[in-house]
Specification:
Layout lengths: L10 H9 L9 H8 L1 H12 L6 H18 L6 H26 L4 H30 L4 H32 L18 H8 L5 H28 L3 E3 L2 E3 L1 H26 L2 H16 L1
Antiparallel strand pairs: 1-2
Length: 291
């Protein structure tokens, strides 16, 4: 579709074309949250960018620049971290806009999806590293880097774990090797329950899973936006045991402790429930439907 020669659809039509896949009321709560917040804003940027020659990958780059700039502003004194929080909102919004433009122009690509995921992984890891440096400048406590690195490494390992889950499932199909290993399995023998079922079907199986997905997807970062804004405005601090803290430091300690524990649980869950085999059969099932 050449948008320079064809009239751009109305906002209402754009929502149907670009956001229709995310309007399932039975879907994840994060999508419901997006419908109430970011999707309401992103579509206007999509409409604006469709009147230009900007590409989805260029919007992804804008998103990456906004997110990384937000990380840098966390380290500045005064109200600059609030500007960083604002830039994080543009990081999220542009991360939606790139896909909306691609869907409208029907130019979705795996390269674009790769760049999009790289954008998310880089900024998410940098957030905790820069936040820990900001807190070090405030308190002079080198221990803050322990929690910051713990959170950053955990986020990166989480991305790696899911990447290798896909690799483990795809490798026998792509290279047509080791398939004899799977002859002993039948799809009905595998435990496609709980987290694994939700991940493979992209739809939560219970209200507990829906809430957990929302807290992981948005609670982790939205709570950071709140505490950083609060600390920038009020500048309050307090003592706990041997630590001088503010809310941002307390948040970082919590994340730095909880994320590695969650990571260990996730690895145990995937191994004990044969997650790669479950994904392998899911891919085969989808390929059969495509034929």
């Amino acid at each position: 579709m050449n948008t320079s020669e064809q009239k751009i659809s109305s906002i209402k039509e754009l929502r149907k074309i670009c956001q229709g896949a995310y309007m399932d009321v039975e879907g994840p709560l994060s999508e419901a949250f997006n419908r109430l917040t970011y999707y309401k804003i992103s579509i206007y940027f999509t409409w604006l960018f469709l009147h230009t020659s900007i590409t989805p990958n260029q919007v992804t780059l804008l998103s990456l620049l906004a997110g990384f700039s937000g990380c840098i502003l966390l380290t500045f004194p005064g109200y600059f971290p609030i500007l960083g929080v604002i830039l994080f909102q543009f990081w999220i919004i542009f991360d939606m806009v790139d896909g909306e433009i691609a869907r409208y122009k029907n130019i979705c690509s795996l390269t674009g999806a790769f760049f999009d995921r790289l954008n998310t992984a880089v900024v998410e890891a940098c957030i905790f590293s820069f936040l820990s440096y900001s807190l070090y400048l405030t308190f002079g406590d080198i221990r803050v880097f322990i929690f910051g690195l713990s959170a950053s490494i955990s986020i990166l390992l989480l991305k790696i774990i899911f990447s290798y889950l896909h690799i483990a499932a795809l490798e026998p199909i792509l290279h047509k090797k080791h398939t004899e290993m799977f002859r002993k399995y039948k799809k009905t023998d595998l435990k496609e329950v709980g987290l694994l079922h939700d991940y493979l079907s992209a739809k939560p199986s219970s209200n507990f899973m829906r809430i957990a997905e929302l807290l992981i997807g948005y609670g982790l970062y939205n709570s950071m936006y709140v505490v950083v804004t609060f600390d920038s405005i009020f500048g309050l601090s307090f003592s706990l045991f041997s630590f001088s803290l503010n809310l941002s430091y307390l948040y970082l300690i919590s994340v730095g402790v909880v994320l590695p524990i969650a990571l260990i649980f996730l690895v145990y869950y995937m191994v004990s429930n044969n997650a790669p085999e479950g994904m392998y059969f899911k891919i085969l099932e989808n390929l059969k439907h495509e034929e």
